[in-house]
Specification:
- The protein contains 15 helices and 16 strands.
- With about 525 residues, the protein is an alpha+beta fold.
- It has 4 domains: about 1-125, Rossmann fold (3-Layer(aba) Sandwich), CATH 3.40.50; about 155-270, Alpha-Beta Complex (Hect, E3 ligase catalytic domain fold); about 285-340 and about 425-520, no CATH class; about 345-420.
- The strands form 6 sheets. A 4-stranded mixed β-sheet has the order 8-14-15-16. Strands 1-2-3 form a 3-stranded mixed β-sheet, with helices on one face.
- Helix 7 packs across helix 8 and helix 11 (about 350-380) packs antiparallel against helix 12.
- It is globular.
- Keywords: Coiled coil, DNA recombination, DNA-binding.
């Protein structure tokens, strides 16, 4: 930042830091910073015209590898898209300024492509070195060496040693861990444990900046399942378990007894009458990134008992700080527009038609891939220049994205038909009906996101498709919207929770698996032609 400030002062530039763009810890090599970090925010600001696009704006970077170290084609497309939007790029390494006109300057293009290629090669080597270092450290730990494998470790211990000689010592928070296990073994539920700690003013572990400083059943569950408490280091990348890496907090017997009790409770829960909630584990809050839970409430009015079902945000429970609305289950069902009246028996002729559609689309994809390969050859041989190549390749890539989404949508249709869904209506009191609708929703939808502020539900399918619908609420002063233009507002709100580190881990996995950060608002329904 100091170099940028010096350059700005010497060249009469004014630094605009109102966007608060920071890019710490995100690699440009795999393009993560483009989607989730500062560069992603900068590109969105260009699209929304939050940044002037009259040629007066400059993106200042140390060198090209801070813009992108991805493959040259991808890096050039990113470079070109910023300049084409009439936003200039300054590279401090060589004090060069690239403008929209630079795209017509062959020498500038060749020079920039050479630097991008160099950045990609260097990053590949760096990635290989990091992987080798990681493997070397893991081998040393597995062979009994006393080195520190990872900089992060559980909050109930401190490292009084060094990187080469770890010396973990339990601190005062270890007593909280012991108490959690003892309370659970004594029959207190996870929610009950969270309530006790919140009432006593005991803060949770792994609290991030701006996160809600409250215990929840999720916090308690993560500790009850964490093998670190018995001294094990679990390496998620490889699946290795290193015994005796940490000092144990509880005995293996207590840990296994807790596991057995949790399994027993799960068995008893599933063996009884099934919940009428067909959205289990799929509803999340836009405002805080936490999961919604299902709850039944009863009210007596004029001597008559009435039962209501609600979906409530777990970030609001136990004064967690979230101000999202409680939604009646029936209203949520109605708002999501999930098709709950259907007959979907297997139809061999319809299946054949869909498979024929997929075969035809695959041929189109094959042709497009061939055209891309031909473009590569033409660029390598010098038949076309980089500018022509970039324009043609960009169009082909856009077509490929559309065709691949069509294939995914058709495959989803086949999966639904093979599920043998066959029901005339959804009866929330019929276990068979509940299970069929649950299966349909699990096979079709990745998540449902609720924005209480916008009175909107965003339904995200496994294929990345999005449907936005309003929902009714007696406290609502704002009419919900189903306009696709509001998708980007909701996406920005969700991204904000992600950056703060407050988001439910399962929610994060779902969004990454469906490419939510790079999704485009659908304008065409390819479900069936």
């Amino acid at each position: 930042m100091e170099n940028i400030e010096d350059y700005a002062a010497k060249n009469d530039f004014v630094i605009d830091d109102t966007l608060n763009l920071k890019d710490l810890g995100l690699s440009a090599f795999k393009g993560k910073h483009k989607d989730k970090g500062a560069l992603g925010g900068f590109i969105k600001a260009i699209e929304k015209k939050s940044i002037p696009v009259d040629g007066s704006s400059y993106l200042c970077i140390e060198q090209f590898d801070r813009l992108s170290r991805e493959d040259v084609d991808t890096a050039y497309q990113l470079f070109r898209s910023i300049l084409k939007a009439n936003v200039n790029i300054i590279t401090l390494m060589d004090k060069r300024i690239y403008t929209k006109e630079s795209l017509n300057d062959m020498m500038s293009i060749i020079y920039s492509i050479m630097l991008m290629s160099q950045a990609n090669v260097e990053s590949q080597k760096k990635s290989e070195r990091i992987t080798a270092t990681y493997k070397s450290k893991l081998d040393k730990v597995k062979n009994g060496e006393n080195i520190l494998f990872a900089a992060r470790y559980p909050e109930w211990m401190d490292n009084q040693g060094s990187m080469k000689d770890r010396q973990f010592v339990l601190n005062e928070k270890a007593e909280i861990v012991r108490r959690i296990f003892q309370l659970y073994l004594d029959g207190v539920s996870m929610n009950g444990i969270a309530r006790i700690f919140n009432d006593e003013g005991i803060g949770p572990f792994m609290r991030t900046k701006n996160s809600i400083n409250q215990w929840s059943s999720g916090n308690v569950s993560s500790i009850l399942r964490n093998r670190c408490v018995v001294g094990d280091l679990c390496v998620s990348r490889t699946g290795d378990i290193i015994k005796g890496y940490y000092p144990p907090v509880i005995s293996v017997d207590d840990f296994e007894a807790t596991e057995g009790l949790r399994d027993k409770k799960r068995t008893l829960k599933t063996a009884g009458k099934p919940s009428i909630n067909v959205f289990t584990g799929k509803v999340f809050c836009v405002e805080c990134g936490r999961k919604f839970y299902f709850e039944k409430e009863s009210f007596t009015y004029k001597g008559q008992k009435n039962i209501y079902h609600f979906l409530k945000c777990s970030g609001k429970r136990n004064n967690g700080g979230c101000h999202s609305l409680n939604i009646k289950y029936e209203d949520f069902l109605s708002a999501t527009k999930v098709p709950l009246k259907m007959k979907m028996k297997k139809d061999p002729s319809q299946l054949r038609d869909i498979e024929n559609h997929i075969s035809k689309i695959r041929e189109v994809v094959k042709e497009l891939d061939g055209e891309l390969a031909q473009l590569d050859l033409m660029l390598d041989s010098g038949e076309i220049n980089a500018t022509i190549y970039a324009k043609a390749a960009s169009k082909l890539e856009d077509k490929l994205v559309v065709e691949r989404k069509r294939i995914a949508s058709y495959k989803q249709k086949i999966a639904q038909m093979n599920n043998d869904l066959d029901f005339d209506s959804f009866d929330i009191h019929d276990p068979k009906s509940i299970n069929k609708v649950k299966k349909y929703i699990n096979d079709t939808y990745a998540a449902f996101m609720v924005s209480s502020y916008n009175k909107t539900i965003l339904s995200l399918s496994h294929t990345g498709g999005v449907v936005i619908t309003p929902f009714k609420h007696k406290k609502s002063l704002v009419k919900g919207s189903e306009s696709t233009k509001d998708f980007y507002t909701l996406q920005a709100d969700i991204l904000d929770q992600y950056k703060r580190g407050e988001m439910d881990s399962k929610f994060t996995e779902i969004l990454e698996a469906t490419n939510f950060w790079g999704i485009e608002t659908p304008e065409t329904d390819y479900s069936f032609e």
